[in-house]
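Aim 2, interim progress. The first record below pairs a target sequence with its structure tokens.
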Amino acid sequence: MALIDKFLKKTIIEEESDIPLNILICFSKQETGTALCKIANHFMNSKIKNEQIASLHLIEKEEYNKIENIEEYKTTLFDGIINECKKSTAMVRTFLKPSEDFVSEILKTSEDLNCNLVLIGIGKTVFTPQLWGSYQKFKSYQGTPEKMESTLDTLSHKGVSSLIERNDKTTGIFIDHNLETIDQIFIPILDKNDIHIFDYIKRLADKTIAKITLWDAIGVVESVPELKKAFQVMQKNSDERVVMWDNCKKIEYDFIKGLDLVVIGFEGWSKLISSAITWSHSLPSTLIIRKKIY
């Protein structure tokens, strides 16, 4: 309960969801950058001033040096991304940076821009449940590795782990499965460490007209009066678009197939992919959020 009390103090009591977001989105592929901007827009609150989105395209120096016309490359790359980002009221900035160490570049850019949320799009073949589960088991025996592969498309589990541990702000790892619309959102809570996800449920409920289904697999909402009240307020303000999954019902593959986006905490993700739940390997586009609560 101490962890939950700390969360309540830092979020619901202090209304952290009303703090302006300064989001850094990082990507290698244009399609992923556009999808990340779409998600960032859904987190923005038009009632909050001074919210910002910075779009960072990272490219290896060798590839950068092959580009004949940098300005033309940037125009082609960022055109659709800027149009997507401008659907919100946030200020939008774009950056193109050549680097040999993407993780360090992300952290430096985040610090320079004073970002409080970093969203990283990575290859879907990099962060599969099977491979991540195998890596977590390996890491538990080997300790945290010092070296890492650093590009986003080749970013290994070592790189992802290093980025999450080194980033003092909230980190979102996005696995893109061709996200086009955000009409059906599924938010599982499988670990008490992930109740910070409430901040994002509130933002999604305030901004989007999507249906949001919360799966409280551990019963934390019902057992904590403050969380239960906060959820009931979200339900009321969203005209019942925010719903709680009935734990008496089995979650079927057909339900998962109809989703557009899964938003889940890092600890819950680790539990989900280590479980025997068959549909955990058939998730749509997924945003895994890790927040450090001190």
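The second target in this work package is listed in the same format:
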Amino acid sequence: MPRIAVAMTPHRVADVCDAATRALLEERFDVVWAGPELDAAELTRLVAGSDVVLTSWGTPHLDTALWADGSGPAIVAHAAGSVKKLIDPAVLDRVTVFSAAGRIAWSVGEYCLAAILTLTRQLPRFDTAMRAGEWKPGYLRGHEIRGRSVGILGASSTARALITLLRPFGCDVRVYDPYLDAERAAALGVRTVALEEALACPIISVHVPNVPETAGMVSRGLIDALPDGAVVVNSSRGPAIDQDALLEHVLAGRISATLDVYDTEPPTLAPEVLAAPNLLLSPHVAGDTTEGHLALAGHVVADVVAFLDRGERGPSLVDPATWAIAA
């Protein structure tokens, strides 16, 4: 029976591991559970002799020294999103890595759809008007998203979740992603376009990874050219957008926006920004839902079991070839 080290505190286990997954772990593995204090030394002790290590937020970095003598776990299953800060790419030739980023993506997709619908229907403005004693203000009227063009920056897993959720609305989805070829775009039911064309859509959602190539991608000049009344949602990484320029246009009332990520986190925002009725703000929680978190360990463990039993490369397996452009 393979040995699995659950390298997360009991508090984190309760957050990302449901009862069914705990039962599966006990059935299929010799399980070693971490205690409430998990530092680098405890991690080294815990991982020693393990075939699989199950990690999540709060797990210390898996130092290359764990594999220095030719041993170390053969599989790392991350019950969270990005693995870039967890493991060094130098060991990817010895380790098979799984990540629950794909499961988190669905939560992000729902968040983005909710934000788009909220802003296109102008619900925050109606809420503000109602609280001020106004009833059916004649200067406000929302829009539908049915059949409208939607520009998506980056064909990541979160973008693909949003694309799936947009299908019932019959939107014309236009994706900017230099790595998305025509065949895969057709399979998604979208078409690839230049960055400027994606940003010419009335609805725009940003889904790019935090890599040097995406820093400042949506510049001040591109924001100046956004169509009047545009709705912009950023749930990926703050530095992808010129935040100051975006907020200037929001405060001018020319566009609406949703920000879940910021240049620096937590952000320091001016009072007028906090009061803007055409701006939705959230504290980097697009992927944070009760159901989504509880499913994370199960998402990767199921793929680990299939990999050990039948050599299957499930959807949560991290392809080393895409490491450089991954989130």
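The mean pLDDT is 95. This observation will shape the mutagenesis plan for the next reporting period.
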